[in-house]
Amino acid sequence: MAGHLPRLLPALALALALGLGAIAAPPSAADVRIKDIAQFEGVRENQLVGYGLVVGLNGTGDSLRNSPFTERSIEGMLERLGVGNLTDEQMRTQNTAAVMVTAMLPPFARRGSTIDVVVSSLGDATSLRGGTLIVTPLTGADGEVYAVSQGPIAVAGYAAQGANASIVEGVPTVARIENGATVENEIDFDLAAMNSIRIALRTPDFTTAKRVEQAINAHMGSIARTLDSGTVEVRSAAKVDIPGMLAEIEGLRVQPDAIAKVVIDARSGTIVIGSEVRIAEVAVSQGGLTVIVKEEIEVSQPEPISIGNTVIVPQTEVTVEEQEAQFSILEGDVSLQRLVDGLNAIGVTASQTISILQAIKAAGALHADLEII
Fold it and tell me: 53, 109, 186, 295: least surrounded by Cβ within 10 Å?
C-alpha cells in the first residue's frame, strides 16, 4: 500500500490549485508593514447618511400614489421655495425619486474638501439615469450635519422596456456622484494632545501583537506594550512629533502569524489552504460510482399504403462505472505541499477534495479550522 502513497499525495492538491479552483497559500515568511495589518485607534472613517430627492428623470421616477413620502417631500421642497397650495390632483410628476444618500467621511477631513456619495432609490423608481440630486444634508451617528451633497448623478446600469419584453443591465436605481458632497464640519481629533497611541490589529493574534511590540521597541526604545491579542499601546513623550512617530511606526516591518485554516467555498469549488495546515497519520480511500443513462428516440412508421400510426419508441441504455478504490496512508505531519501534490496525483475533482478534507477533519486528523462558506 505504501506504493500508492505518491499517487495520493501528489494528488491531494492540484485539485486545489489548478483546474479545480483551489488555491494553496505559500509559506507565510514575508515581512509586511505595520500599516498593512493594523490601524491606529481613532483614525478611521465615519458613516454619513441623508434623505433627498433626485429630479430630472425621464418618466422613470417614483409613482406618487405608491410612494407617498415622495409626494410629501416634493410638497415640502416647493413650499420652502415659495411654491405652495398644490393639491394632490395637481401633482402628477414622474420625474422625481426619493433617495437615500450615503458617504464615508475620511479621518481628518477639512471644511471645503469633497467626498464621493452613493445615491440609492427609496421608492419604486425604475431608473435614476439622467437625474440630479438636489441639496441634501448628510448627518453622522450623532445627528450633526457634516457634509452637504448635490449634483448630477452617474448610473452604471440601464433598463429598457417594451410592450412585451424588458431588459435590465446592472442596477439602474443606484448611482454615484464623484466629489458630490462638500464637508461642512470637522471631527475634532487632536493627535498632539494624546499621551499614548493604540495600534489595533485587523486580525487579532497574540504572536503578531508581540512581534509588533518588539519591532517598535527595537527601533524606538521601550515605548510599546501589548495590551491584548488585537491592541498594542505606544506611549509618547512630551513634545514628541506624534505624526512623525506614527509615520515611522507604520513603516516598520513584521512577520504576521495566523492560525491554521482551510476555507471551502462549496458553490464554486474553491479551496484555500493555509501554510500551517497539518494532517496527522491517516488512511484515505477515495472511490466513486458513475451511472450513465443514455436516451435515444426512434420513430416507427407504418408501411406505405397501409393502415397504421407513427409511434415514437424510446430506447434507454443504462451503464454503471465504478472506480477502483485504494487505501493510501498519509504519514503524520503532512505539509501543505505534500497534501497538494497528493490531491493532484489522484486527479480528484473539487467536490471530491472537499469530501476528503471534511472526512479527514471528522476523523480528527486535520489540525486546522475548517470553514465552509
Answer: 295
* Residues contacting 129, CB < 8 A, separation 6+: 57, 58, 60, 155, 158, 172, 175
Q: Domain segments of the chain: what residues?
A: 2-28+262-372, 32-42+190-254, 46-183
Question: How many residues appear in the chain?
Answer: 373
Global confidence as pTM: 0.65
Q: Distance from first CA to last CA of the chain, Å, rounded?
A: 35
The reported pLDDT for the residue numbered 15 is 36
Domain 32-42+190-254 architecture: 2-Layer Sandwich (3.30)
Rounded Cα distance between 238 and 192, Å, is 9
Q: Which three cell numbers stand for residue 263?
A: 476555507
pLDDT for 331 beyond 60: no
Residues 46, 109 contacting (CB under 8 angstroms):
no
- Measured CA to CA, the distance from residue 186 to residue 173 in angstroms comes to 31
**What distance in Å separates the CA atoms of residue 312 and residue 307, rounded to the nearest whole number?**
17
Summarize pLDDT for 54-82 with one digit per residue, the tens. Answer: 999 988 888 887 788 888 888 888 888 88
Instruction: Express each pLDDT in 115-147 by its tens digit.
Output: 999 999 998 898 899 999 999 999 999 999 999
Residue 60 is placed in which grid cell? Answer: 422613470
